Every structure is written in C-alpha cells, then in structure tokens.
Amino acid sequence: MTKIILVAASIGAVAGLVAALCGVGGGVIMVPAFVMLLGLSQKEAVATSLTSIILISLFATVKNHSNHLVNWPIAVACAGLGGVVSWFAADLLSFLSNQALTRIFAILMIGVGLRMLFQK
C-alpha cells in the first residue's frame, strides 16, 4: 500500500505542475474556449479554468462518492502533493509569456493525444 501511495503522490506532483501551467480537467475545453471565444490571455484562461473547476469538481466528487467510485487514500495522496506542487508552480505562470504557455499547453495536449491514440 505504501508504494501505491507514493505513486499516487508522484502523480499528484506532476498533475500539480501541469495544473498550475495548463489548467486541470475541464481545462482541455475551457482554456482553449476562453482564449478563442472570450479573448482571454492564456494566463487568464488557465487561472479562470482552475477557479471554475473548483465547483465543478466538488459536485462531481460528491456524486462519484455517492456512487462508491472514489478511492480516497489514492485521491488524498495525489491531491496532497499535487496541491503543494501547484502552489509553487503557479508562480511560474507569472514568469512565462503567454506564447510559451500556449506552446507548453499544445505540446502536452499533442503528447497525451498521441499516447491515447496509439495505446493498446
């Protein structure tokens, strides 16, 4: 179980870094939409996405918990280190240009998309 918690915490650390720079979950939809449809800068879009996801995640978590789908030990380990890393990584947002941030976001999306496309 200790190994599982360490892996979950590591996943959280990477997720925290990516979240702070690219937005989380709905950021795949929200960040590009905020930029293209609402004219927000990449930085504003990421920050707005992260803020919006709080309530969205809360509602989904309550429902998923009631459906007995949440593995709480893994979720807590992942969120714990992920939260700490995202706190510090959010400072990177102010140092990166919108262009650099857009490229990071695009590379991440292409990489994840390719992996999903070719995964067996």
Task: Give an overview of the whole structure.
The protein has 120 residues and is an all-alpha fold. 86% of the residues lie in helices and 0% in strands. It is built from 5 helices and no strands. It starts with a helix and ends with a helix. The mean pLDDT is 87.
Summarize the structure.
With 120 residues, the protein is mainly α. It has helices at residues 2-22, 27-38, 42-66, 72-95, 98-118. It has one domain (2-118).
Please name the defining characteristics of this protein:
120 residues; mainly alpha; 5 helices; 86% helix; 0% strand; globular
* Amino-to-carboxy terminus distance: 27 Å
Form type: globular
Q: How many independent structural domains?
A: 1
Counting helices, strands and paired strands, the structural category is mainly alpha
Question: What's the SSE blueprint?
Answer:
Elements: H1 2-22, H2 27-38, H3 42-66, H4 72-95, H5 98-118
